[in-house]
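Propose amino acids for all 137 sites.
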């Protein structure tokens, strides 16, 4: 199922945009370095570059979105090698679209291949009701 086929409600998304670039997966986005004689894990160059590039493409909300959210992300990778991992995208949207990625209570994440144009298509809705009970939180 593609992101375009997923409709969590009849409402239009609060946010809808495409960010160019290939996100680093969580397993591959850290590197071990020594800082002032101490060993630390920091983001890899690929992860830092992606976050910087994403920051310039991501819409900004003022005030930030509050409440529980639904997110649908379709990630187009440049090769078949990367694992499906949306966590760096969710982290990068903190402080730009919503306060904290813990607000995301429902995720729909899809893996796709586009060797010429890696990107992520993102849609965000307010969670109006619990999909299991039909009740408003």
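Proposal:
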């Amino acid at each position: 199922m593609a992101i375009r086929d997923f409709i969590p409600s009849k409402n239009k998304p609060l946010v809808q945009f495409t960010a160019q670039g290939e996100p680093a997966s969580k397993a591959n986005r850290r590197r071990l370095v020594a800082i002032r004689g101490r060993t630390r894990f920091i983001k890899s160059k690929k992860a830092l570059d992606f976050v910087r590039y994403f920051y310039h493409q991501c819409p900004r909300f003022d005030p930030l979105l509050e409440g529980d959210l639904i997110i649908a992300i379709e990630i187009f990778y440049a090769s078949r090698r990367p694992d499906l991992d949306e966590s760096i995208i969710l982290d990068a949207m903190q402080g730009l679209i919503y306060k904290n990625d813990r607000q995301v209570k429902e995720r729909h994440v899809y893996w796709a291949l586009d060797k010429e144009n890696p990107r992520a298509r993102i849609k965000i809705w307010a969670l109006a009701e619990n999909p299991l009970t039909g009740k408003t939180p």
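The two ends are 27 Å apart (CA to CA). The beta strands are 15-20, 30-35, 38-43, 69-77, 104-113, 119-126.
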